[in-house]
Amino acid sequence: MPAAGEGLIDCHMLAGRIHQTVSCAYPLKIISPTAARCTLADGTRTSLVPAVSYILSYGGGIVHGDQIRVRVRVATKCALLLLTQGSTKVYRSRGKQPVSCLPNLNPALDSNQTFQTMELTVNDGAFLCLLPDPVTCFEGAKYNQRQWIKMHKGGSLVLLDWMTSGRMSRGERWAFDKYFSVNCVTIVSGDKERLAVRDALLLGPECGPRLESLDAFAYLLILGPHVAHIADTFRSDHKQNRIRPFERTHSSVQWSVSEVCAFDVLGVAVRASSSSTEDLKLWIQSKLDGVCLVVGDSAWSMYCNA
Predict the structure, then answer these.
(1) Which of 40, 45, 47, 126 lies closest to 82, judged by CA?
(2) Which of 2, 185, 217, 228 suits a disulfide with 25, CB 3.0-4.6 Å?
(3) Strand 67-74 to 6-14 pairing
(4) Beta bridge partner(s), residue 221
(5) Cα separation of 120 and 130, whole Å?
(6) Can you give the residue ranges of every domain in the chain?
(7) pTM for this structure?
């Protein structure tokens, strides 16, 4: 049995069929619906077999003191689409640990804050697509997120990490105490492992006045051969329309592109911001539409229709 707040997803092939081994413990919940394999226009099927998992929490949010840890492994020939249902709400931090709170499983972590850790492994010839809804921190919340990805050469990755300024419908903009997110990607080739990406974002209430009208930020990472066509689209669109370092398009969205390369694994890192969460969501969906060719219509529709 996993410890409180821990989850495991192991996606692998068995006897020619895709299987997911899933385990989780309160307050974490994982749902894995069935996705049909994609048939291309020429009648052939995609080289990867798709699977979908939703990572959820009871009540739709993370409360003060929660420590969520999810480990994911995607084996060769598998394409796993990881989703959530609705934005991840982070509730306010209390002055002291409540009696009913789960025990602190890691004394090194401050029990007065909220932690979410993802440990992801992508094997050679596999594809992982992590497309959560945005994180929304309530007033007084303290949120820490760490995502560690180990990708073998020949694997592919799409990773989305994004957040909003808060509960704008209640007048909360940049009212949380802390938002800290780190994304680290290492590439494995043989017996060597090299850091390809390390990106960190730290925001607090003091950032609000400097961010003007911006209310949503996104970090998007696209790596590997299965999504090379998506990375190429970002490059060509940015090059064609670039007038200054940040290109304004799709109403309020501003975005920029950076190249990523390690062990000859090529890709792009995209940073985008907007004054409208909905505009940014639609922009992300339109830019990532090519993922449909990898995971198929059945799996992709679960993301687009969420």
Answers:
(1) 126
(2) 2
(3) parallel
(4) 159, 269
(5) 10
(6) 6-95+102-218
(7) 0.90
Indicate the Cα dihedral angle 231, 79, 194, 109, nearest 10°.
110
To which residue do tokens 């808060």 refer? 166
19: amino acid identity, one letter: H
Position 244, amino acid: R
Number of H helices, E strands in the chain: 4, 19
Q: Which residue type sits at 259?
A: E
The one-digit pLDDT tens for each residue of the chain (306 residues) are: 788 899 999 999 998 899 999 999 998 999 999 888 766 656 567 789 999 999 998 877 898 889 999 999 999 999 999 999 888 899 988 765 554 455 555 545 566 789 999 999 999 999 999 999 999 999 999 999 999 999 999 999 999 999 999 998 888 899 999 999 999 999 999 999 999 999 999 998 888 888 878 999 999 999 999 999 999 999 998 887 765 555 455 468 999 999 999 888 999 999 999 999 999 999 999 999 999 999 988 999 999 986
**Distance between CA 195 and CA 82 in Å, rounded?**
23
